[in-house]
Amino acid sequence: DAKTTQPNSMESNEEEPVHLPCNHSTISGTDYIHWYRQLPSQGPEYVIHGLTSNVNNRMASLAIAEDRKSSTLILHRATLRDAAVYYCILKRTGSARQLTFGSGTQLTVLP
Amino acid sequence: GAGVSQSPRYKVAKRGQDVALRCDPISGHVSLFWYQQALGQGPEFLTYFQNEAQLDKSGLPSDRFFAERPEGSVSTLKIQRTQQEDSAVYLCASSLARVSSYEQYFGPGTRLTVT
Predict the structure, then answer these.
(1) Rounded to an integer, what distance in angstroms lies between the CA atom of residue A68 and that of residue A15?
(2) What's the angle, vertex CA B101, arms to CA B57 and CA A4, rounded to 5?
(3) Do A101 and B44 touch (CB under 8 A)?
(4) Do A93 and B43 touch (CB under 8 A)?
(5) What are residue A105's DSSP bridge partners?
(6) What is the 3-state secondary structure (H, E, C) of B57-91?
(7) pLDDT 10s digits, A5-43
(8) Do β-strands B75-79 and B19-24 pair in parallel, antiparallel, or remain unpaired?
(9) At B108, is the secondary structure helix, strand, or coil?
(10) Count of A–B CB contacts within 8 Å?
(11) Which 67-96 residues of chain A touch chain B by CB within 8 A?
(12) When comparing pLDDT for B1 and A104, which is higher?
């Protein structure tokens, strides 16, 4: 699976939007972009995924660049409960296989 | 419904002891994964089952690690003759289907400390 690059850490103020970037310049046409997050002392949880078009769900939005070489996870109003490590992961179509985690972005939300 | 559960949540083992870690996936989930997470790192893949078949065990770090899922539901990860470098959180995840886009549901993990 292609590699992703994320900043090690980011800070946000509570109730403000957060934009978490991810670069994946070697993405292939069959790679889905997945985001997971891991709250302290918990297992990772699925946030959102997409292929080409922007996606929205109750947790977040995913904005995918037109060339698909980068994407941004958007939390519209950060809360203290959103403090977590956020992982951007590429996963190939047709494969039910494992996720390849990088080191992710540690998001700190300031009250 | 119930999520993925793992037991025990915490395990302390003396070096050289054998340990067994249990994972109860979400009912009906075909795929089951084990990951190892060292402190401050992202999870790393260990092994993957589809029903009872172990399709990939390329991530197991040594032959001291063994996993099974005999009836296609509960899985056990066994570590023989534990070493200090085995100290980590062991995460289990399950997934509904074979389609790539389906998300994985993770359990809370078992924190193993080898002294």
Answers:
(1) 29
(2) 75
(3) yes
(4) no
(5) A86
(6) CCCCCCCCEEEECCCCCCEEEEECCCCHHHCEEEE
(7) 999 999 999 999 999 999 999 999 889 999 999 999 999
(8) antiparallel
(9) coil
(10) 65
(11) 85, 87, 91-96
(12) A104
The owner of tokens 């078009």 is: A53
Q: What is the pLDDT of residues A37-73, one digit of tens each?
A: 999 999 999 999 999 999 999 989 999 999 999 999 9
| Interchain contact, B42 vs A102, CB within 8 Å | yes
- Sequence-distant contacts of A79-84: CB under 8 A, at least 24 apart: A79/A14, A79/A15, A79/A109, A80/A14, A80/A109, A80/A111, A81/A39, A82/A18, A82/A37, A82/A107, A82/A109, A83/A39, A83/A40, A83/A107, A83/A108, A83/A109, A84/A37, A84/A38, A84/A39, A84/A40
Number of other residues whose CB lies within 10 A of the CB of residue A25: 12
Residue B26 has pLDDT above 70, yes or no: yes
Q: Are A83 and A93 in contact (CB under 8 A)?
A: no
- Partnered with residue A12 across adjacent β-strands are A109
